[in-house]
Design brief:
InterPro entries: Intradiol_dOase_C, Intradiol_dOase_core, Intradiol_RC_Dioxygenase, PCDO_beta_N, Protocat_dOase_b. Helices cover 16% and strands 18% of the residues. By secondary structure, it is of the alpha+beta class. The chain has two domains: 30 residues, no CATH class; 175 residues, Protocatechuate 3,4-Dioxygenase, subunit A (Sandwich). The strands form three sheets. Strands 1, 4, 9, 10 and 11 form a five-stranded mixed sheet that branches. A four-stranded antiparallel sheet has the order 3-2-7-8, with no helix packed on it. Strand 7 and strand 8 form a beta hairpin. The longest helix is centred in the N-terminal third of the chain and has 21 residues. It is globular, with a radius of gyration of 23 Å. The two termini are 42 Å apart. It binds fe (ii) ion. Fe (ii) ion binds next to strand 7.
Amino acid sequence: MTTTAPDPAASTTTHGPAASTATHEQATAHEQAAATALPTQRRISAEIAAAHEAAGRDPVRSPHPPRDFAPYRSSALRHPRLPPVRVPADPEAAELYGPVFGRTDVTDLDADLTRQHTGEPLGERITVAGRVLDRAGRPVAGQLVEIWQANASGRYAHQRDQHPAPLDPHFTGVGRCLTDRQGAYRFTTVKPGAYPWRNHENAWRPAHIHFSLFGTAFTQRLVTQMYFPGDPLFPYDPILQSVTDPAARERLVATYDHGLSTPEWSLGYRWDIVLDGPAATLPDPEEDR
Ligand SMILES: [Fe+2]
């Protein structure tokens, strides 16, 4: 195709009829690559801006993100399209098939992700603490809080994560604890790194920790993510930006708490989780990690 700019690297070696064929093949390859190319960050950012603008005009705007947020590409294919299945007889029967756990199943060691192996993991050691509250601000005690995260290099200890950042033999990246009577939880871990993903060209997730709150039954589970303050990747991330309400987005970001930092040991981040009501912590639209 004469309208396709030649590859600069090839242009110095393509001359005559044979070169014309080579150029044509290269151009065709470029066209095929363009057809299957990931969208650019510019396009994704424009889609995010349009979605935010539309949400801002909606008089009945919900703080909850749409389940099929187009800039987050895979959500278009895997969001629920049908209403939840009704359990006709005994809704509580569903709990008979759910996992169960008891207080003795969760130990203090489970909340320290830096002590699960024979050595210290690499990275910036942090304490993440907060409270689980209901809509009235009352503490929710006895909640199973589970976390999972990438290591300091931005790599998950998971076979699906093959991006070329180092694994850390001293870090698995999973932990859990139960909230105490004041609804408080506390983890010791390392700050996760940002990592690339294939939503679009040059897509990077801001550093985050995945949280699951179990309640007292399987059907009460809330899955969400905690972010770190001041991350420059926030505006580029369609998962965080799928929460179109700026105030609701802000509630997903932890606060640096110098009083929670431990001298010579760790930096402190505080993040409270509100289970419902106007100040609720929103669920996580990301479901494949
Ligand atoms: Fe993640």
